[in-house]
Amino acid sequence: MKQGDIDLLMQLVAPGVTVFGDGGGKAPRWSQPIAGRERVTTLLVGVGARLVELRAQLELHEINGQPGALVFDSEHRLINVFALDVGDGVVHAVRSVINPDKLRHLGPVADIRALLQRRGNEASTKP
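RE: above sequence
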């Protein structure tokens, strides 16, 4: 991601933006909410890079009345659902659910730990 992209992202999130993650102990998650424009922007850039590595696909959807997306792996298994709390033209919160037990009702669910491990193994075997 280029610096201009990061600058744009920082303009799209509120100074007090917070990310809430729900892995339910069954998937990677953040132990506490991540708060603040710089910390959240850094997190989102990192997550975005990881999704590109995993060849993930985003499908925009309304989630609980808010803009959001479903994130799928390359075999169209659900990885994550997130919603954005938007007000005054900026994102105030990101609510992310990656807990497979809470996603199963939406269709086949990916094993995110296996996907991350496989990508790590592939990267370590490249010359």
